[in-house]
Design goal:
Residues 6-190 form the UmuC domain. This protein is of the alpha+beta class. The chain contains 13 helices and 13 strands. The protein folds into three domains: 1-169, 2-Layer Sandwich (Alpha-Beta Plaits); 171-244, 5' to 3' exonuclease, C-terminal subdomain (DNA polymerase, domain 1, Orthogonal Bundle), CATH 1.10.150; 248-395, DNA polymerase, Y-family, little finger domain (Dna Ligase, domain 1), CATH 3.30.1490. It binds a DNA duplex through helix 3, helix 8, helix 10 and strand 9.
Length: 425
DNA sequence: TCTGGGGTCCTAGGACCC
DNA sequence: TCTGGGGTCCTAGGACCC
């Protein structure tokens, strides 16, 4: 396909920006957002980056620095970020006939046929609209392929003087930028490929674009070959309009405090199975078997290590929470060993089947109608009053193992009780 | 004391079949 | 004496993404 124009727009330090929207006092302060269990820094504003806080840095190592430097620290608030993301995508759909939501904070927009000279102004208008309507600052990268649009977005982010927009659709201006970008910054080139490429003298995105595609394939499979073509402006990756049917589904969590009793473990896997059931039903899928795993800390050398997993077959394919809980607990009992401090457990389901497509046993032991009615009722109540309003008793009340979110901001946009208050005086 | 949670795609190699 | 080859399916592991 030639003559295509794509834009990649994404939120700057997206999670941090969401927090800033609802607390203007954070506007000039460094802000970071932590991963699940308050484990690592996964989003940092430029001020936080300037303090030397790295992506993925464990929080306990930077706790003192954050206190001394006045860094605002937040647990992840996925409810809030997901809602802000939906608002941004609603705007994008007004601005392009063809939008691919690529991740929670990134979307590709098809701008083919918009007129090359007007693109820059169009992108700047879009940015300021998103900023005004949602409060989120963004950057826009423009190019003839997804890989080049991503790279243009990277350039826009790193070069403040561009004002948040970079257009690499013109071949002549493009090559100058490509020669200035390290090869590891290219979408699809991770640490392993970067090391191999640098070893043969391919150091920049420009070098990679000039690499023989056959050699790229030999070194990095067909994925690497595609990347070379995309860097040359030949599109190999179409926009995905409808998300493809998902192939697997997992619910895994680190524990807030280590689990040392079987009762605690059974509670935790029941809670994870409950969540798994919600995900399956939302996607119209079911499963005939699930894997359960548990392990001790990978990091604490004083903990005796233990890691185990097993696959449990359900009597028949199902997405009923109670079936999944039973199966998950059976698996957990089978691999449980006393005397360890468990740090994490989870359940993993592959081979998902669209609901109703699985073979039925000749004599169906389940009352399918009753099961569906109960699950639907649970999902409706939980959607209305918040996840976890109704859970199976097996998922526990005390939940000492529960993942930590000790610094989570209010769910400003999705819970009436947590809506921001404004007082005029 | 404290280190995330999801996903996808690709390839090689073995088992099995005719 | 001569001892195939091509196809499919599955799994594990690597690499990458956000």
């Amino acid at each position: 396909m030639t003559g295509r124009i794509l834009a990649l727009i994404d939120g700057n330090s997206f999670y941090c920006s969401c927090e800033r929207v609802f607390d203007p006092k954070l506007a000039t302060r460094p802000v970071i957002v932590l991963s699940n269990n308050d484990g690592c820094a996964v989003a940092r504003t430029s001020e936080a980056k300037a303090l030397g806080i790295r992506m993925g840095e464990p929080f306990f190592k930077i706790r003192d620095l954050c206190r001394d430097e006045g860094v605002a620290v937040f647990s992840s608030n996925y409810t809030l970020y997901g809602d802000m993301s939906a608002r941004m995508n609603a705007i994008y759909r007004d601005w392009s006939p063809d939008v691919e939501v690529y991740s929670i904070d990134e979307s590709f927009l098809d701008l083919t046929g918009f007129g090359r000279r007007d693109l820059d102004a169009y992108a700047r208008d879009l940015r300021s609209t998103v900023r005004q309507w949602t409060g989120i600052p963004t950057c826009v990268g423009i190019g003839p392929t997804k890989t080049l649009a991503k790279l243009a977005n990277h350039v826009a982010k790193k070069n403040g003087e561009l004002g948040g927009v970079c257009d690499l659709s013109d071949e002549r201006t493009r090559s100058a930028w490509l020669d200035r970008i390290e090869v590891g910054e290219v979408w699809g080139i991770g640490g392993a490929s970067e090391a191999k490429l640098v070893a043969i003298g391919v150091r920049t995105a420009g070098d990679l674009s000039r690499l023989d595609p056959r050699l790229a394939r030999k070194m990095m499979t067909v994925v690497g070959e595609r990347t070379v073509h995309e860097l040359r402006g030949i599109s190999c990756m179409p926009l995905e309009h409808v998300p493809p049917q998902r192939k697997g589904c997992a619910v895994t969590r680190s524990f807030g405090t280590p689990v040392t009793t079987l009762a605690g473990m059974l509670e935790a896997v029941a809670a994870y199975a409950t969540r798994a059931g919600e995900k399956l039903r939302r996607h119209g899928l079911e499963t005939a078997h699930l894997a359960v795993f548990m392990h001790t800390s990978e990091f604490n050398p004083r903990d005796r290590p233990y890691s185990a997993a097993t696959t449990v077959h359900l009597p028949e394919a199902s997405n009923d929470t109670l079936d999944l809980v039973r199966a998950a607990q059976r698996g957990a009992r089978a691999i449980w060993r006393d005397g360890f401090r468990y740090a994490k457990a989870g359940i993993v389901m592959n081979d998902l089947i669209p609901t109703g497509r699985a073979p039925r046993p000749l004599f169906d032991a389940r009352d399918r109608e009753q099961s569906d009615a109960l699950m639907t009722a649970m999902d409706v109540v939980n959607a209305r009053f918040g996840r976890g309003t109704i859970v199976p008793a097996a998922a526990g009340i005390k939940r000492e193992w529960q993942t930590k979110f000790e610094m989570r901001s209010p769910r400003y946009t999705t819970r009436v009780a947590e809506i921001p208050r404004v007082s005029a005086g």
